[in-house]
Amino acid sequence: MWVKILEENLKWLDNWEEQMIHKKISNQEFLTQSTADGLRVTINSTIQLSKYLLEECKFKYVLTFKMNQDRLEVNIKNMFIIWTHFPV
Description:
The protein has helices spanning 2-21, 33-56, 70-85. It has 88 residues and is mainly α. It has one domain (2-85).
């Protein structure tokens, strides 16, 4: 059921963007491209990871609100800081 809702959200986002592409709405009435792309990645990742955990790993449930990339972003930021201070 939840997968269907997320998939419907992707279709809704695509339809909304199509309206902007075909000039039915202005660019200001849609998201920035990076925001739209990020939203698609987030929704698709949530679907794929949840399916994997439920079907392959036999989890009983998945708390999607616990999913985030904060730790990854911190690590990338730290790597960038180190690289800028100590270039190879």
